[in-house]
Amino acid sequence: MNNEEFSYFFHGTTINDPTLVNEIFDNGLINYRGNDMLSTMWPIKIREGELGQKMKAYAGTKGNAIFVIKIPKYYLTPQTSKGQLQQIPLPIWKHISSFGERGDISQLSPELIYGVYLAKNDSFIQNPNYSPVHNPTGLQFDNQQIEFLLNNDAIGMYNFAVSRKGKTFEELTQADDIAHNWDNALTQYSEHFGIEQNKNHHSL
Fold it and tell me: Are 108 and 156 in contact (CB under 8 A)?
């Protein structure tokens, strides 16, 4: 897989309980500011061979653990031509609650978490659940994705993305299953990345 096909983000935190790493790998990264990746992750440009160096530098300022989020660019900023999408963007957030102290609480798909760098022992643990072909069933779009669709006149997909806001994970899962909303996209990306598509739902 070409490194240039992915967008990288770092989420720095402090972890004193090692079991939290596996919990995040299995369930995803919680954001207490809703579907806003830039409120909890920092975008990082990664060239071939630079990941280790960039993680160590970031760990010096943002805690003892750096989670690496690796998302295909097609999901976030698909190519467009006169408002027509050349790729299908995929939602990435599971809605958890609308009653957090700061509003919505969301959880990033665990399949998009590439791994974690632990500064204490200078080690990197890759997430066994990571897959660029994640299952978007029941998920909501990030605010940045919705803004991109609007700015690029992809009105049909923009309206679809906005319509998913305010609905529960269960409601979206049922609607996605009935309409087979993601079948074509998962087949397309599975073939592109040479990875079998994940047909398992996120936990209800």
Answer: no
Confidence at 204, pLDDT banded by 50, 70, 90: very low
| CA–CA separation, 142 and 116 (whole Å) | 22
Residue 53 lies in a domain: yes
Q: How far apart are CA 137 and CA 204, in angstroms?
A: 11
The conformation of residue 93, written as its DSSP 8-state character, comes to E
Q: Is 194 a domain residue?
A: no
Domain count, the chain: 1
Q: Residue 58: CA atoms inside 13 Å, Cβ hemisphere, count?
A: 25
pLDDT, tens digit, 9 for 90 and up, residues 104-119:
899 999 999 999 999 9
Distances in Å between the Cα of 42 and the Cα atoms of 26, 82, 172 are: 22, 30, 28
Q: Between these two residues, 59 and 20, which has the higher pLDDT value?
A: 20
Residue 196 lies in a domain: no
Please report, for residues 13, 132, 173, the alpha-carbon distance to residue 74 in angstroms, rounded to integers and kept in the order given.
27, 10, 22
Range of the domain at 95: 3-185
Return the percentage of the chain with pLDDT > 70, whole number.
Answer: 94
Q: Is residue 202 part of a domain?
A: no
Are 97 and 164 in contact, with CB atoms under 8 Å apart?
Answer: no
Contact of 55 with 117, CB cutoff 8 Å: yes
